[in-house]
Design brief:
2 domains; alpha/beta; Zincin-like; 11 helices; 337 residues; five-stranded mixed β-sheet; single chain
Length: 337
């Protein structure tokens, strides 16, 4: 072979060696910047609450002055209330009770990931409001149409709550947040499950059950037995029959004699599922039924803006697909569902 051939071959081999050395040694020593991925689990997938249809001028002609705080969009129409906000949470309180707002904001931020993990859901709207209207009597409820929790309280009750927060703060305790509290658990659960339109026993039952799943509930009462509610206290033990959940249709039709233990009985349905099949099945049931509810209309008309899915639908489309047909047997035997 000619001398030129060897020269060309040598040059090609030299360049090949340099290329290999660059790719496998020098180039690989350069560490790429990590790609920051969006934490999907931390995001909210709901809608924004629109306040376009609400105005203070319309409110002034209304005789219903309580509507100032009935809807969070109207809070700025009143001089008597203050709004405190942090991230995707807002708390509306009468002027002078800002400490109450601060503690509930902390609590909402603590409760959110706990409930999200337990339920496998997110609220329908991208912002959650807690409202404290001054009232003559105490009552609490959640409005899923405005993603709001309402705690109607008397002035004495607000004073007492603020005093309690202040005292514990003065003592150096981080009261209201952290691993020892989730004071909004029941009503907050309704915000998560609002678009599922659950039958009433399931709607209240899952909210009561979630309270028992929070880290702050240390000595959980053993009140769910095979055939009876079993309450334990420091003083005595109390046994009550389960409510007949077949009679719990909705507020207009509810059997008042069936109300006393409706919440507890509903909670025991979920407690029984957790004990018999595993706590993870609760999340799967909620997620499964959320998919169904998103594509179907509720089949029970119980009042204006209060339609719900029947127990039959919830059991068929939510519970049975997750834990099996045998669920129908004990649901009928224990709770008459």
């Amino acid at each position: 072979m000619s001398k030129g051939f060897w020269v060309i071959s040598t040059v090609l081999l030299l360049f090949s060696g340099i290329f290999i050395f660059w790719n496998y040694f020098l180039k690989n020593d350069v560490v790429d910047e990590p790609v920051v991925k969006e934490d999907v689990d931390a995001t909210w997938s709901g809608e924004e609450l629109s306040c376009v249809e609400f105005s203070c001028s319309n409110l002034e002609s209304s005789n219903d002055r309580i509507s100032v705080v009935y809807h969070p969009c109207l809070v700025k129409c009143s001089n008597g209330y203050k709004i405190s906000e942090s991230g995707q949470f807002a708390v509306i309180v009468p002027t002078g009770y800002e400490l109450l707002a601060e503690k509930h904001l902390d609590d909402l931020q603590y409760c959110f990931p706990l409930l999200k993990e337990q339920l496998g859901l997110v609220p329908f709207y991208n912002k959650v409001y807690v409202v404290f209207p001054l009232a003559d009597e105490s009552k609490s409820y959640a409005s899923t149409s405005t993603s709001s929790i309402y705690y109607y309280r008397t002035k004495d009750q607000l004073d007492s709550a603020q005093k309690s927060f202040k005292k514990r703060s003065d003592e150096g305790l981080n009261f209201g947040v952290g691993p020892d509290s989730c004071i909004n658990a029941h009503e907050f659960t309704h915000i998560f499950t609002g678009e599922l339109h659950l039958p009433r026993w399931a709607n209240e039952g899952i909210a009561e059950y979630m309270i028992t799943q929070m880290p702050d509930v240390k000595d959980k009462p053993s009140y769910c037995a095979d055939d009876v509610l079993h309450f334990k206290s420091l003083k005595d033990e109390k046994f009550e029959p389960y409510s007949d959940l077949s009679k719990s249709f909705g507020v207009p039709d509810v059997d008042e004699s069936n109300e006393d233990y409706l919440y507890e009985t509903g909670a025991c349905v979920f407690d029984y599922i957790s004990e018999k099949y595993g706590q993870d099945k609760i999340k799967l049931i909620m997620q499964r039924f959320a998919e169904y509810a998103a594509n179907h209309e509720p089949d029970e008309i119980i009042g204006k803006d209060m339609n719900r899915f029947s127990s039959k639908i919830f059991i068929r489309e939510g519970i049975v697909p997750v834990i099996g047909e045998d669920a129908k047997v004990w649901l009928k035997k224990m709770f008459n569902l």
